[in-house]
Amino acid sequence: MENGRRYHAYKEGTYYLPNDEDESFRLGLQHHTYTLTYDGELYLCPAGRDQPVSRVLDCGTGTGLWAIDFGLELADENPEATVIGVDLSPTQPPLLLLIKVLLAHSVPPNVSFYVDDLEENWIYTTPFDFVHARMLTGALKSWPRLFEQSYENLVPGGWLEVSDITLPVRCDDDTFREDSDLAKWSGLMLEASHILDSPLDSAYSYQKQLQDAGFINVVERRFKWPHNHWPKARKYKEIGDGVSGLSLALFTRGLGWTAEDVEIFLAGVRKDMKDVRMHTYYCVITVYGQKPYDTDPLSQTETGSSPPPEPQPDE
Fold first, then answer.
1. Of 104, 179, 245, 308, which is least packed with CB atoms within 10 Å of its CB?
2. Cβ(61)–Cβ(84) under 8 Å?
């Protein structure tokens, strides 16, 4: 327990978001928000659309909602397909908790979960067709290492997709006051994340890092997650309801604040987030890329198909 919140015990202190019931509920809302962002889809890359998918890795699976939903989709198409979810915390939810977050699923038999550290050497003996990583900002010290290990553990033609929220807070007009608590919070969060060597602006480098790791057909897409109900589009209004992103650990561990001082400060931040006169949002960045076909996979498994045409950005 820390500041009244529960955090992971395995590799304690590595990640600054809690793993208690409140966080599980937030992750449920986050999963719903992504579904809205992707217009009902679970992911953006061509995996499973250009060739069959039989083995999938979900990095930083959290409550496992993405892995469960993907596993249910796979079960209809390929009963032998498997999804593996890996996280520092064993927070995969029972049915009761899933009902609480309005996502009442049980874990399908083709989905399994493991507690592990993604920054350690991966020891998988069979390569994956698709590696998925979402909202791991702040969880890793070396993103290039994750991309390199993903590349090494993919079959030729396999896909990696990674997506993260970013700071600083953005605004496309002059409604964001520089003296607001929200602006101060944005700067302090970013400062603290760099102090803890887990920067919250890392996603801006993903596209180049995937290319440096050897991926081809790399595509980057950017989305807006508004803080309140200022957007006219109904989808974006609902997205704003599911985003908070506040973290006690960044301020207490990174900046040395007391929990009491943080809560006092956050009262003003929450007020600003609800102020529809400020058209602020988070920039969410999704990047995906493909392992070339002219490479050998981890287990020398052949895909048995020719390369698909190069995908084009759809926005």
1. 179
2. no
β-pair partners for 165: 284
Of the chain, the percentage scoring pLDDT greater than 70 comes to 74
Residue 238: what pLDDT?
52
**Sole residue written with tokens 């609800």:** 274
pTM: predicted TM-score of the whole model, two decimal places: 0.81
What is the spatial distance between Cα 69 and Cα 58, in angstroms, rounded to a whole number?
12
My answer on whether omega of the bond before 168 falls inside 30° of 0, hence cis, is yes
What is the C-alpha to C-alpha distance for residues 55 and 136, in angstroms, rounded to an integer? 21
Tokens of 89: 């915390």
Task: Report the topology of domain 21-290.
Answer: Rossmann fold (3.40.50)
Mean of the per-residue pLDDT values of the chain: 80
Residue for token pair 């996502």: 103
Residue type for position 216: I
For 229: left if phi > 0, alpha if psi spans -120 to 50, otherwise beta; the answer is: alpha
Residues paired with 87 in a beta bridge: 115
One-letter identity of residue 12: E
**Domain ranges (residues) in the chain:** 21-290
